[in-house]
Amino acid sequence: MTTESALKPVVVGLGEILWDLLPSGRKLGGAPANFAFHASQLGAQGLVVSSVGTDALGRDIFGRLPALGLTTRFVTMLDAYPTGTVSVQLDAHGTASYVIHEGVAWDHIRFVRETEILASRADAVCVGSLAQRNADSRATIQRFLTATRTECLRIFDLNLRQHYFDREIIETTLHRCQVLKLNDEEWPVLASLLGIEPTFPAGLRALLNEYGLSLIALTCGPRGSLLCSPAETDRLEAAPVHVADTVGAGDAFTGALAVGLLKGRPLPVIHRHAARVAAYLCTQPGATPPLPADLVEPQP
Question: Phi-psi region for residue 162, left (φ > 0), alpha (ψ -120 to 50) or beta?
Fold first, then answer.
């Protein structure tokens, strides 16, 4: 680790890494990898923990990650499984829908000694529900969360996809995290699953109390976003933008949220910055475009 990287908070995206097969071509994706990339752009040492195959797609990921400033140190190559892919379709408004292919390498992420050491020094980690669809990766994710320090910021980016979630996965992860990030399509599904009234902010506050969370971030696409903590609620209207696609916008929001929380910024400042970063992502194709200089630091 260089002196420069040692000064940065260690922020881990743990879960799926894959290729998004977009109408415009193949783009590197997977919410945890996107999160780590954007956290790195915003001043953290972003790290990805995942698995790929030994196939050409996996080798391409190993070549692509360093170009994005991300190390492959915690990404393992598995002979027995192919690299993950997701077929992405975009509607007339640029909103994405997904077909997530099964039996892939990120379903089998291993918890090894090096992973345990990383967990013990992580300042923040972001996990989702999708990578927990298989028992192997689910066990690794839960062991990683358990192995973190008390002060580690543990973020659950709900990321409900297709049928790859259930109440047990969600509740187990909520109990081990302090921050929940979700969108307005996921909120009524989650509320129904957990038996909570799907209102906000009242329903969100009930969720905060039930699971001892310190923050919930709810994104609502063109209708803005809301941050809800035990002490305050901050709402933002969305800035109008010309949407190229929405792939990765939520992950960029979560990356900015994590970095802002680690730096101890006021919640409204964190919120405005995360919203601006996510809005910019919507104007760009794919999940990992470079951020312009004026977005790297939040505006006062």
Answer: left
Element (DSSP H or E) covering residue 291: none
Q: Tell me: the pLDDT tens digits for 238-290?
A: 989 998 888 889 999 999 999 999 999 999 999 999 999 999 999 998 788 99
CATH of residue 204: 3.40.1190.20
Enter the tokens of residue 278: 């996510």
* Burial class of residue 164 (count of CB atoms within 10 Å of its CB; 0-12, 13-18, 19+): middle
**298 in a structural domain:** no
Count how many domains the chain has.
1
The one-character DSSP state at 239 is P
Q: Take residue 23 and report the two structure tokens written for it.
A: 């109408």
For residue 299, being part of any structural domain is answered with: no
The tens digit of pLDDT for each residue in 66-115 reads 999 999 999 999 999 999 998 878 787 767 677 899 999 999 999 999 99
Buried b (16+ CB within 10 A) or exposed e, 281-293: bbebbbbbbebee
Q: Is the CB of residue 129 less than 8 Å from the CB of residue 155?
A: no
